[in-house]
Amino acid sequence: MSQRAEFEAALARAEADWRKANENLDIAEAERANAHSAWDKVAGERRSAGADRRKAGSIWDRAFADRRKAAADRRNADAARDKANAAWDKARAERATARAAWDKARDALDELNRIEGRSQAS
Question: Who contacts 23 (Cβ-Cβ below 8 Å, separation ≥6)?
Answer without folding.
Answer: none
